[in-house]
Design goal:
Strand content: 25-35%
Pfam family, one: PP2C_2
Strand order of the largest sheet: 1-2-12-11-8-9
Structural class: alpha+beta
Shape: globular
Protein name: PPM-type phosphatase domain-containing protein
CATH architecture of the largest domain: 4-Layer Sandwich
Distance between the termini: 54 Å
Largest sheet: 6 strands, antiparallel
Low-confidence stretches: none
Domain PPM-type phosphatase: 12-250
Radius of gyration: 21 Å
Number of helices: 9
């Protein structure tokens, strides 16, 4: 099932989304970069609510995030505090957008990452995810705020059953509801080579952690992201969900790291050439 992809790119980040089997697009992505401070804000939202409220909700989340970024609050506040402000402002924005609607209520998930120098902070509400990779190793992923995730933590189901469990779409937290959202936070030191994958449930329900890690490491990130979205759409089929995905490798590579990688590549090619020469000599001698 081939579909057009809404594509975004900023330095060291690519993002995209596709409708999947849905008539409307309720996923939104936002990628912002400040070149002077080499700071990044990455946001992904998955709207819901019916009768057009889902599109209204996810758009409200990214509009609120862009507004706070443009106001420069991220320069003045620690990363976790800025992301908390972002989530609460997005929640308030959805309440404002609810006024005047005759049907449907705008609700949304959110997962957001802020990179400031060597510090990376993240926050999420709902079941849109952040995966963190160091090379091929998974450093961690956010835990969904869903009944299915709760069953997993209780040992009632396995990780492999999570994506297809009937309770997967029953969320325990979200933006736009009657209660103030409880935001889950995380932070870490940014290391060279670390990669971040943000995605909606339409992606992670169809692609394994190993697949996301492998695709996020590919040198051609544009092609890798398009392949990942195409796989999610194909596996979701005609009744599949919207899909949204962000690949990010925000740490700058040092000249020493690049030199070492090139040196290893040259040495590998040299070793392969020697083996080929030895094989040719042995064949000629026999």
């Amino acid at each position: 099932m081939e579909q057009a992809v809404d594509f975004q790119a900023i330095p060291r980040v690519v993002a995209g989304r596709a409708r999947g089997g849905r008539e409307s697009q309720q996923d939104e992505v936002l990628c912002l970069h400040d070149g002077h401070q080499d700071a990044f804000l990455l946001v992904l939202a998955d709207g819901m609510g019916g009768d057009g409220a889902g599109e209204l909700a996810s758009a409200g989340v990214v509009d609120a995030a862009r507004r706070l970024w443009n106001e420069g609050m991220w320069r003045e506040q620690p990363g976790p505090l800025f992301l908390e402000s972002l989530c609460q402002e997005a929640h308030a924005e959805l309440h404002r957008r609810r006024v005047g609607l005759h049907a449907g209520e705008p609700h949304s998930t959110v997962v957001a990452v802020l990179v400031q120098g060597e510090r990376v902070s993240w926050a999420h509400v709902g079941d849109s995810r952040l995966y963190r990779f160091q090379g091929a190793r998974l450093l961690g992923r956010t835990e969904d705020h869903s009944v299915a995730q709760l069953r997993l933590l209780r040992g009632e189901i396995t990780e492999g059953e999570l994506a297809t469990h009937p309770d997967q779409h029953t969320l325990l937290r979200g933006l736009g509801g009657d209660e103030t959202p409880v935001v889950e936070h995380g932070c870490a030191v940014l290391r060279a080579g670390q990669r971040f994958v943000l995605c909606s449930d339409g992606v992670w329900e169809q692609l394994s952690t190993e697949e996301l890690g492998r695709l996020s490491r590919r040198r051609d990130q544009d092609a890798a992201l398009r392949e990942a979205l195409a796989l999610a759409v194909e596996r979701g089929g005609q009744d599949g969900d919207n899909v949204a995905l962000i690949f990010a490798c925000p740490a700058r590579e040092s000249w020493l790291r690049r030199y070492r990688e090139r040196l290893r590549s040259v040495l590998r090619r040299g070793a392969a050439g020697k083996r080929q020469a030895v094989n040719t000599y042995n064949e000629a001698s026999s």
